[in-house]
Amino acid sequence: MTDTVTPIELGSGNVFADLGMPDPESHLLKAQLVARFASVLKDQGLTQADAAQRVGVSQPDISRLLRGQFRDISVERLLRMLVRLGCAVDIVVHPASGGDEPAAPISVG
Description:
By secondary structure, this protein is mainly alpha-helical. The protein is 47% helix and 6% strand.
């Protein structure tokens, strides 16, 4: 057997950027929101049908969302769905660098 060395490349922290996908920051944010959505469903013991009824979509829509098919769903819609499941959503805007204090959070729901 020949020993083969496979080079390892350090990722950027955003797999969507590393894969060259368009708008990787938005896609990463959506993926994080969907992961939180799935966690809330599990924590609350909700079925996909229960969740669909609570957030106002169909069960197949929930299934597609949980399988990673969320490119056509906006960040705003995902946030509203989380609020309908009883989550508090805070949006914090602060300077990218150099600023010590973030602005006051904006709460949704």
